[in-house]
Specification:
The structure holds 3 protein chains of 3 kinds. By secondary structure, chain A is of the alpha/beta class. Chain A has 2 domains: about 160 residues, Periplasmic binding protein-like II (D-Maltodextrin-Binding Protein, domain 2); about 170 residues, D-Maltodextrin-Binding Protein, domain 2 (3-Layer(aba) Sandwich), CATH 3.40.190. The longest helix of chain A has 23 residues. Chain B is globular, with a radius of gyration of 22 Å. Chain B is mainly alpha-helical. Chain B contains 13 helices and no strands. By secondary structure, chain C is mainly alpha-helical. Chain C has 2 domains: about 50 residues, no CATH class; about 220 residues, Orthogonal Bundle (MetI-like fold), CATH 1.10.3720.10. Chain C has a two-stranded antiparallel sheet with strand order 1-2. In chain C, strand 1 and strand 2 form a beta hairpin. In chain C, helix 4 crosses helix 10 and helix 12 packs antiparallel against helix 13. Chain C starts with a helix and ends in a 7-residue tail after the last helix. Classes of the chains: A alpha/beta, B mainly alpha, C mainly alpha. Chains in contact: A-B, A-C, B-C. Chains B and C meet through helix 1, helix 3, helix 4, helix 5 and helix 6 of B and helix 1, helix 2, helix 4, helix 5 and helix 6 of C.
Chain lengths: ~400, ~290, ~300
């Protein structure tokens, strides 16, 4: 059956070589229609903001975090607006950026570590907030933030926010920790070696930076997302020392809930959602108590999500209707409770099923959120003074790969 | 083969261990499907049937099942057509570059799914400018399913002689008639096995699917994947899995029918095929059921 | 009228047959045109595009692709130690999984092919096929439940004072060995089935010890089938990213490609060339060993 030896390999190479030539020609010519955004040029964003809300286009294509677009509140929206919702769940911020680049989607629920990238890639358009009546009653400390406003224009509608808490199993972790040292100081963390749970994202480096900001003042870190090379290397070194103690780099909330419930995880960074879900199952977990302001003494990182509209949106009217709907008191309360985050809408607190929901999630406490450093895209250009000596997002991604080994 | 008593005992023990290794995790899934906690805990704190109720009620799960069957059937049909054509060329004729072709057919399944998925999605969206949809998923699936049909058919062609076809041609049949009345009947069970496998491959595929699927569409594996990460829905997954395992009796039964069908035919007809050819062909092809 | 039509059709068919008869190249060409268009243009074409993409880079801020040829990605792959480590860890695990599966698969395949009776054989074939229909993801979830700190394994091992492998490379090895085991059993079974019983009987009649029969007759004849199975265990392990992500805290080739695909596609493409090269080399060796007829 293998009569002609020798020839097949050569044939294969001829075929491949021919194809390479063909594709090179194609790649050379095809620069026009199908490129992934243009590079270079100052500023970002793309398209114009919508001036007048028109009739719905019948459907809207969304990219969302799991749990943001669920039938419970999508069905009423579809019935009212006539816009059918097609949703694509993304697992990470990077995936969201990638999906937006396909130009097939009208909008995305972007976290702060994706917004600047989307803006810089000209993938998102400014939002005319005058067309979003519910925007007026969004918590003021969520408006006009560095991660949702560029060059003075709002590029999205705040959806909700959360803090990355320190959670532990009270049977295993004694005494109750009051500092991130329990996961980050190698000497303390070694006690829980193999059982530390860390979020699997380059943004976690900011946790190390936040820790150093408090414990190594010599480094002069002022913002955990604006790190020069020396500060960055110190944070990366800290995370590398943490690696041997980490049991799991978790990437989904359910994965971590299961990890804590079955004992694999004993202490680590979590979202409010996991903490309350585990509490609800009577698992022996604890998080920083009220006496510490619910956060370890260093403060914490966190996230604030924003609905952004694509600069290539084919259904802009439906997208505007969606953005207005998702921050309407009822819908915003539903999504906040389902997902486990603080709502962006002030009036949502009156609509939650659990009457204590907003206080549990500190939705109405600006003092709590003052200690939370929201994720955002690290840029080479540091905001103050316009220096360009900070490590950018690519450096963070590369470092995260090295940290995980 | 003749074995000593001790040899037999050792061999049986090894078989038992392998079966235990295969079935213990499946047993864990079955137990977890009745777990009353919404977290997968061991041992389960209590038992409930409610996850099955939820699984049956879930519209999204049912839609995903239908989508998976659609994708599987279309991918299977494409794979049958293309796989059989290649097999007929390779199995009955000698020509320059024939080995390269068998290499090319194996490649999509031998390369990691992530490579195939990334490459295809790249080509669809960047080069061809096609939006991702169920269609692109089907194209991806058909690409790596060709090999299972091809392998089954080519194995069968090797075992049957070409002289029947020559006889048919000599007796005045045109190529289509020869294919319809001579070649096809001898290939039928091999085609059936290949088709079943192509469907199975497509049905459980997640990696290529994940890279080539459009917005708002879910195959069953993608539905499971999403539910793993969707708040409050995790225990529905083992329940769906148990339902799937029970449903898999259908294809397993079909496979069994195909093989016994053939075993029953061969001794009477004589022919070139060994009695074990069909089960072997199924087994062989299953071996290709990668991803 | 009807007969006329048949006659007309037949003669057309015959004419076609005649036309093809003297032209074997045309015959082969017409059989292969569609499948080759699919596999060469669509599939190989996509791989070639991937190859070209590997030479591009991305703009650090926007993540937009810069379409200028550069060796940057390959330099990074070679120069940053962590990537070499990841490749080495993955290849090592793939080899280990392959050996493990071969060791577990051979006895059961042998029993199925040469020892078991007709009914047992049929039952065992079904028993080995069944797990293929249980979803791949669900099986990984089952293993998460088994390997967890308070999971099934530690629950079973506790009375004898042992402890499971936790979340390291060992877990990945175990889970991958589990997932791909049927892909090893079935080709070996098929390969053993093809060895005529008379050959084994002859060896026995000539006085060979069962072990000698095994070593000199069965093993050499079934080895290509083992290699055929290894193509799957090896290459599936090489590219998987879900199992490592869900049962370990270690990085593998698949997880690295997956992690970089979203923000740096050119780098992911460059990394994807690693398993392509490894698998093609492996296939080359496998073909030399005659495994392709058993795939």
């Amino acid at each position: 059956m293998r009569g002609q030896k020798g020839s097949p390999a050569r044939t294969a190479w001829f075929v491949v070589a021919g194809l390479v030539a063909f594709m090179l020609v194609l790649a050379g010519c095809g620069g026009g229609g199908s490129t992934t955004g243009t590079t270079g040029g100052e500023g970002g964003g793309g398209g114009e903001e919508l001036q007048k809300l028109g009739k719905g286009e019948g459907e809207v294509n969304l990219i969302s975090w799991a749990g943001y677009v669920e039938p419970e509140w999508v069905k009423p929206f579809e019935a009212k607006s006539g816009c059918k919702v097609n949703d694509k769940v993304a697992g990470t911020s990077d995936e969201m950026v990638k999906l937006m680049e396909t130009g097939q989607y009208d909008g995305v629920s972007a976290s702060g570590n994706a917004t600047a990238r989307l803006w810089a890639a000209h993938e998102v358009a400014p939002v005319n907030v005058a067309l979003i009546p519910n925007y007026k009653t969004v918590f003021p400390d969520l408006k006009g933030q560095v991660y949702n406003t560029f060059e003075g224009k709002p590029y999205g509608i705040p959806h909700g926010r959360g803090a990355n808490l320190l959670m532990w199993n009270k049977n295993d972790v004694k005494p109750p920790p009051s500092s991130w040292e329990v996961t980050l100081d190698p000497k303390v963390a070694a006690k829980y070696s193999g059982h530390i749970s860390q979020y699997d994202d380059p943004m976690s480096i900011a946790e190390g930076a936040l820790y150093l900001m408090n414990h190594e003042p010599k480094l002069g870190i002022e913002d955990p997302y604006e790190l020069n090379e020396e500060q960055f290397d110190a944070a990366v070194e800290l995370m590398k020392e943490q690696k041997p103690n980490v049991g799991e780099y978790w990437s989904s909330a359910e994965q971590q809930i299961e990890g804590f419930a079955n004992g694999s995880n004993q202490v680590g960074t979590t979202w409010q959602y996991q903490y309350f879900a585990l509490k609800g199952e009577n698992e022996p977990v604890e998080a920083s108590p009220a006496s510490q302001g619910f956060l370890p003494k260093e403060g914490a990182t966190g996230w604030s999500d924003t609905w952004m509209i694509s600069s290539h949106a084919k259904h802009p009217n439906c997208m505007y209707m969606w953005m207005n709907y998702i921050i309407s008191p009822k819908a915003n309360a539903q999504v906040a409770e389902y997902f486990g985050e603080a709502p962006a809408q002030e009036k949502a607190c009156e609509e939650t099923e659990n009457p204590n929901f907003c206080s549990e999630y500190h939705a109405e406490e600006p003092a709590f959120w003052k200690r939370v450093y929201y994720w955002r895209t690290p840029l080479a250009e540091c905001s103050e003074g316009g220096e360009t000596d900070c490590m950018d997002y690519n450096d963070w991604v590369r470092a995260w790969t090295e940290i995980k080994g | 083969m003749r074995l000593s008593r001790r040899g037999k005992i050792l061999l049986r023990a090894a078989v038992a261990l392998a079966l235990a290794f295969i079935y213990i995790p499946l047993l864990v899934i079955v137990v977890e499907a009745f777990n009353s906690s919404r977290i997968l805990k061991w041992p389960p704190p209590g038992f409930t049937f409610s996850w099955f109720g939820k699984a049956f009620e879930s519209d999204s799960a049912r839609e995903a099942l239908v989508t998976s069957i659609e994708a599987g059937v279309v991918a299977m049909l494409i794979a049958i057509t293309l796989g059989t054509l290649i097999a007929l060329a390779v199995g009955r004729r000698r020509f320059f570059g024939r080995d390269t072709i068998s290499f090319l057919v194996v490649l999509p399944i031998a390369l990691p799914g992530i490579v195939t998925g990334v490459a295809l999605s790249n080509t669809f969206t960047q080069v061809l400018g096609i939006s991702l949809s169920l269609m692109t998923v089907i194209v991806g699936h058909a690409t790596f399913c060709i090999v299972v049909v091809y392998n089954n058919v080519v194995a069968r062609l090797r075992r049957t002689s070409g002289s029947f076809e020559e006889a048919s041609a000599d007796l005045g049949a045109d190529p289509w008639q020869t294919f319809r009345w001579v070649t096809f009947p001898s290939l039928r069970s091999a085609l059936g096995a290949g088709a079943l496998l192509a469907f199975a491959l497509s049905f459980d595929e997640i990696i290529v699917t994940n890279f080539t699927i459009g917005a708002g569409e879910e195959t069953l594996p993608i539905w499971i994947y999403h539910n793993l990460f969707r708040p409050k829905e995790l225990p529905v997954v083992p329940a769906v899995a148990v339902i799937l395992i029970i449903l898999s009796i259908i294809p397993v039964y079909l496979a069994h029918r195909l093989s016994s069908d053939d075993a029953g035919l061969t001794p009477g007809r004589g022919g070139g095929a060994a009695p074990t050819a069909a089960p072997a062909a199924i087994a062989e092809a299953e071996a290709t059921a990668a991803h | 009228m009807a007969t006329d039509a048949v006659i007309v059709k037949r003669s057309a068919g015959r004419r076609l047959a005649g036309f093809f008869n003297g032209r074997p190249r045309l015959q082969i060409g017409s059989l292969l045109a569609a499948p080759m268009a699919w596999l060469v243009i669509l599939y190989l074409g996509s791989l070639v595009v991937l190859l070209i993409t590997a030479f591009w880079t991305v703009d650090p801020l926007s993540g937009s692709v810069i379409k200028e040829l550069s060796w940057q990605n390959f330099e990074e792959l070679v120069n940053v130690p962590v990537y070499r480590e990841i490749v080495w860890r993955t290849v090592r695990t793939a080899a280990l999984v392959t050996i493990t599966d071969a060791l577990i698969a051979f006895p059961i395949a042998f029993y199925m092919a040469k020892v078991a009776g007709r009914k047992t054989k049929a039952a065992l074939v079904v028993a080995v096929l069944m797990p293929l229909w249980a979803s791949y993801l669900v099986k990984i979830i089952a293993w998460r439940a088994i390997l967890a700190e308070h999971g099934v394994l530690n629950w079973a091992l506790e009375p004898i004072g042992l402890h499971g492998p936790g979340t390291g490379v060992a877990s990945v090895w175990l889970v991958m060995s589990y997932l791909w085991l049927p892909y090893m059993i079935l080709p070996i079974f098929a390969g053993l089935e093809r060895i005529p019983d008379s050959l084994i009987a002859a060896s026995e009649d000539l006085g060979a010890h069962p072990f000698t029969t095994f070593r000199k007759v069965i093993l050499p004849l079934s080895f290509p089938a083992v290699v055929a199975g290894s193509i799957f265990t090896f290459s599936l392990t090489l590219g998987d990213y879900l199992a490592p992500k869900l049962v370990s805290n270690e990085q593998f080739i698949g997880t690295s490609i997956f992690d970089s695909i979203t923000n740096n596609q050119p780098f992911a493409a460059a990394f994807a060339l690693v398993p392509i090269v490894v698998v093609i080399a492996y296939l080359g060796v496998a073909r030399k060993l005659g495994a392709f007829e058993h795939v």
